[in-house]
Amino acid sequence: xxxxxxxxxxxxxxxxxxxxxxxxxxxxxxxxxxxxxxxxxxxxxxxxxxxxxxxxxxxxxxxxxxxxxxxxxxxxxxxx
Length: 80
Known about the structure:
This protein has a single domain (3-79), classed as ACP-like (Non-ribosomal Peptide Synthetase Peptidyl Carrier Protein, Chain A), CATH 1.10.1200.10. It has 4 helices and no strands. The chain is mostly helical and 80 residues long.
């Protein structure tokens, strides 16, 4: 498995507890529209992601990330 595939798999695992609607997660899944997350859910999720990957995701970067794929790409850059 590539690093990106591992990052994607771990990200999907982290989404699971917040996926109240049981949406099938893909790279194109949008946090706000598809998962219907509010800002508090996003904050909880981001805290989990930061802990898991040992990174800091700035508010500016959070604002740019709309899909699971974009998050995985950002995590790859932050870990490089």
